[in-house]
Design brief:
CATH class of the largest domain: Alpha Beta
Helix content: 10-25%
CATH architecture of the largest domain: 2-Layer Sandwich
Family: Belongs to the pseudouridine synthase RsuA family.
Keywords: Isomerase, RNA-binding
GO molecular function: RNA binding; rRNA pseudouridine synthase activity
CATH topology of the largest domain: Alpha-Beta Plaits
Pfam families: PseudoU_synth_2, S4
Shape: elongated
Number of domains: 3
Structural class: alpha+beta
GO biological process, one term: enzyme-directed rRNA pseudouridine synthesis
Distance between the termini: 49 Å
Strand content: 25-35%
Number of helices: 7
Length: 256
């Protein structure tokens, strides 16, 4: 049965469906020796698919890993600045996994990596409202009005890939965890459902409290309270099934 090329790539663990689409439009995918750049191209089970000259295997075992991402590591497969990547940390994993979403270079915390393209696509789709809980150390002490603005949804003005963008962030759960009046800083916990570029940093900047340090405390039902920075573990069967069913819970420490 014919399937869309990007879906087959995602199911084989090459990348998420969105990232697979970019690989196709960038001309890095061939089917039976022919370069494919048109999205929506369908392939048959017997077709030979290659990405950057490497064959795509359709029967790879689905695996799921939880990483406590450390600072100064990028969440990409490779980096043009030769910085360490999350895949360097999981170099002993035989399957070709990729991160579900991204964390900034200087952001720590919960990161899921898998070769299950369908689950990755589900988790990243806004309609599933997956909780992403961040704890941010910010400059200044947010007022009640600042917190109210975050809860209602702030307008963000940002620059992404040298282009100015403006959007209205969806309402977030926002609370102050701790304050340090001597240093004029605060620890703020934000729960969001979107995954925009530098979103938490931009939201806090919009209320005039720039982020000094940031960690993702929870993603859906996953946290890393049992993992040191740079450590990872495979998810249990029950955790995978709960993710697929969209289950979530709150277990927050407030530590940064």
């Amino acid at each position: 049965m014919a399937e869309r090329l990007q879906k087959v790539m995602a199911q084989a663990g090459v990348a998420s469906r969105r990232a697979s689409e970019k690989l196709i439009t960038d001309g890095r995918v061939t089917v039976n020796g022919k370069t494919i750049t048109e999205l929506g191209t369908k392939v048959e089970p017997h077709d030979k698919i290659e990405v950057n000259g490497e064959p795509v295997e359709g029967n790879e075992k689905k695996v799921y890993f939880l990483l406590n991402k450390p600072r100064e590591v990028v969440t990409t497969a490779s980096d043009d600045k030769d910085r360490a990547t999350v895949l360097d940390i999981l170099k002993d994993v035989p399957q070709r996994v990729y991160p579900v979403g991204r964390l900034d270079y200087d952001t720590t915390g919960v990161l899921l990596l898998t070769n299950d393209g369908d689950l990755a696509n589900q988790l990243m789709h806004p309609k599933y409202n997956i909780d992403k809980v961040y704890v941010a150390k910010v400059k200044g002490i947010p007022s009640n009005d600042d917190l109210k603005a975050l809860r209602l949804g702030v307008t963000v003005h940002t620059v992404e890939k040298n282009r100015h963008k403006t959007y209205h962030a969806a309402p977030a759960k926002a609370e102050i965890v701790a304050v340090d009046r001597a240093k004029n800083t605060a620890i703020v916990r934000l729960t969001i459902h979107e995954g925009r570029y530098h979103q938490v940093k931009e939201m806090m900047k919009a209320v005039n409290h720039p982020v000094l340090k940031l960690t993702r405390e929870r993603y859906g039902l996953l946290d890393v309270t049992d993992l040191a920075p740079g450590e990872y573990r495979e998810l249990t069967y029950d955790e995978v099934q709960a993710l697929k069913q969209g289950k979530q819970y709150r277990r927050s420490s407030g530590r940064l």
